[in-house]
Fold each of these.
Amino acid sequence: MSSATMRVIEANARMYRQTWRGSIVSSFAVPIFTLLAMGGGLGRLVDAGGQTGLGSYLGFVAPALLAATAMMTAVGESTYPVLAGIKWTKSYHAALATPVAPADLANGLVGFLGIRVLFNLLVYAGLMVLMNAMDLIPALTAVLPAALTGLAFATPVMAWAASLDDDRALASFFRFVVMPLFLFSGTFYPVTQLPEWVQPLVWLSPLFHGIELSRGAAGVAGSPALPWWLHLAVLLALFGVGLVLALRSFTKRLWT
Amino acid sequence: MTEPLVVANNLSKKFGDFQAVDDIDFEIAPGEAFGFLGPNGAGKTSTMKMIASISPVTSGHLRVFGLDPKTHGAAIRARLGVVPQEDNLDTELTVEENLFIYGRYFDLPRQEIRDRIDQLLDFAQLSDRKKSKVDPLSGGMKRRLTIARGLINRPDLVILDEPTTGLDPQARHLLWDRLYRLKREGATLVITTHYMDEAEQLCDRLVIMDKGKIVGAGSPQRLIQEHSTREVVELRFPAGEQDAVVDRLEGIGKRVEPLPDRVLLYADEADDALEEVHRRGLAPEMTLARRSTLEDVFLHLTGRTLVE
Ligand SMILES: Nc1ncnc2c1ncn2[C@@H]1O[C@H](COP(=O)(O)OP(=O)(O)O)[C@@H](O)[C@H]1O
Ligand SMILES: [Mg+2]
């Protein structure tokens, strides 16, 4: 990692230190409410039915929520803030008048985003442990694939966001891409519950691979159709290709 | 003779098919305050961005500190201070954090940045605002903070793109005062402006830009000597009468320049010209005698006024 990239990470950490209070509620309130509603409320009903073969429903949902939350955080941080840096506050232009180059900037943003997602997940996993949704060790091992899920979304979404002229497309993106992924990637029920012909479609969802990998890491049975290394490969490929595209997109947009 | 800090030959910038900077040449020497004077859209900002190595050169030759921006952009930017036309401070952060983060982008040691922040806030007359957020600061304060930020790395060349545009007169004079001080301390300044008084006040040498081209170059005095007379008389006639009388002004002074709302008479002696106007029996509603400015130079060179 270049020293300019490190300095961008440091700068973002400093900015975050001044502004985290504003985002702390949205970072944790939604995941905690989801866990309480799904795990606590719905889970009691499901477990009472007793025919799922899943163990506790809360334990089934918790690692998936880690991956899904990582996706939400990463997508949130790679959309509006990127457009703001380019167009609204122009903070990216300020950075680029220094020795920092567009590629350093993109690398640094991805780096800081990874750190932030990881940090959020550790806090969330800690809360899950306190709420008896997960044991400590599985919670910690599930955090890593969940964080990778976040990064696999961050880089391609960032590449796309950096090419936008305004934020009109973003609302549709959240409504018609992010929300369906959240709901249909096997987060709340095994994918095998879906009609057989739909299941291969779910394989197209990056979140599905993140969830499967996180469940596997936490020792919870998911959908056994695909091997773990395939999930890992999909996420790594998305992250890698996305990073190349993001570097290109940043340079194209900011070096004009 | 010392090497120039910036050399541009046949420098051009295109956005798609649009030629924003059209084949310009200039050199900027160490220690001088060099101006780019021209109306909106002349291509000043595009030129500044190329010098600042944040925008690629379309064609031509450009060297900054003897380096090629294309291959040595980061090394050039490390020695530059850039004050962009639009403030891009982080308004959610404090004054101090804005400077600190910027200093870190230059990889300056943390303690050095902290010392430098105190000096710079003192210079920018913002010491009492060190811990306050940027958002509530006035336009003039933000501008001074942006300048302070541009100085954090002790740059060898400071680029100021329209430093006082949008400021009220008082904030403007305070800012000029700060820029004079920088000049006295030996800084090399590149200033763009569409205010002729700013160019006259601050610049040792300047180029006049219009539609992407340089149409004149020299010191303010020199440009006025070359392209205008010492004095100017402005005549305002009652509405609708100007067209009828312009012909009768022919031959007074060196040049007669009718504008939509008044007529300018270029003459070395304003009093003589005015006397002649009255002798010819013309009765303008209002007359004003003044010295020539860069505004007159621009009018002469382009046939248009600088600020519409
Ligand atoms: N990124 C860009 N894309 C397209 N046109 C641009 C871009 N930047 C500037 N221009 C155009 O180039 C011309 C010169 O602009 P600029 O350099 O900002 O002039 P000035 O700073 O003298 O007002 C203007 O007509 C402007 O619209
Ligand atoms: Mg401009």
Amino acid sequence: MIKSLKVLQNPLANSSYQLDILEHNPTHKHASFKEKVAGIGMLPLLAVGVEIFQVNMGKMCNQVCKHCHVDAGPDRKEVMTRDTMQLCLNVLANSPIKIVDLTGGAPELNPDFRWFVEQIKALGKHIIVRCNLTIILANKRFHDLPEFFKLHRIEVVSSLPSFTQDRTDKQRGDGVFEDSIKALQMLNAVGYGIADTGLTLNLVYNPAGAFLPPSQDALEKEYRFELMKKYNISFNKLFAITNMPISRYLDYLLTTGNYDKYMEKLIGAFNPAAVKNVMCRNTISVGWDGYLYDCDFNQMLDLKVTPATSQHLADFDLSALQNREIILKQHCYGCTAGAGSSCGGAVAD
Amino acid sequence: MADHYYNAEDLGKFGNIGEYQKEMADKFFSYYGEVFKDGALTAKEKSLIALAVAHAVQCPYCIDAYSSDAYEKGFSEAQMMEAVHVASAIKGGAVLVHGVQMMNKVKEISM
Ligand code: SF4
Ligand code: SF4
């Protein structure tokens, strides 16, 4: 079994070591992201509200994908407790935030996942679950997840880096493609991704290698055609996401000698138009232990939000967070390359 | 001048050719950009054609660029190799079919 960087005691499991490579390492010197943003007159970059409340329910996962920015895996034990979930619910009950985005790890592995979903739903919020697909097949107790998602009208977002087996398995592990296809068919069977059901199933593409995603529209067309032809699978939208040069993907880039070239690619593709729509501007990201971050990437780099008085759910202060200054580092180039990248795919209009 | 003719970094300097003749370079790059857009053929299909042609003209810069581009656009290793075989077959065939000229000539001058 492949292990997480943390369990392998790889120095890259340490966020300050990662930041050191990204920010200060003289052999890997690249143009500063902050200066680029200053150059287009957008520094400091400020949030424009909090519309999406993204909760990382823990680092435990049934997969160990090579590119994972969470360094998730079966050997990670950090999961959100019910007490911390209750703090999330307190915040949500007292705020106009309408969208809750549940991620991980595999959020479904959290023992209180279903309870949490029911409580959020009772508050009338829209829920997105980032489901890795294979979890549905991982154990009998997860086989009814499609029905559970349907019951709560959850929007499902799932990764499938290719419509071919070899590329998917290279990135996500042996057998992942086959199980993902079965899981997609199970989701389709209850109505997900099928026209007029109102049950949304979006797919995520991210490159299986040291390169940037091609055109989202072209990919979506191809996925639609191939998945229907070969497996009779349909879905709503495809989001093309850029891999972030942090955690396990950073490890991959460094060990294969691709790091500098990849950074140059990201920098060369810097798109000023993508800056104004980066997802941190309307999102708040909550860690498994209740701390607050600008996004899931800053969370993994342990960069807590700037307002010192509102860095944890217990002190959540919407007025301080909604126009906070975003913490920008070199990895942010991953959000602004080409058509841009976010949890909802390309961002440049 | 480097002591070898090809240098990987030079690919990144392609855009600089405008330094010596801007107008023609601008026209070339705008034409080039237009050619590779989605049209009657998709940008993806064009990438595979470019990969095959890159091998036929044996341009290391183009091979570098279109090996990445075709892979990024989703072609598999086997598809890319088959494209190279197409280039090879056409090139090989082009040599061999001239054998007919050779035969014609020999037949003309032999008894
Ligand atoms: S990328 Fe997602 S599915 Fe893969 S190991 Fe990370 S959290 Fe799990
Ligand atoms: S990495 Fe996070 S903080 Fe940086 S631009 Fe992207 S979403 Fe914003």
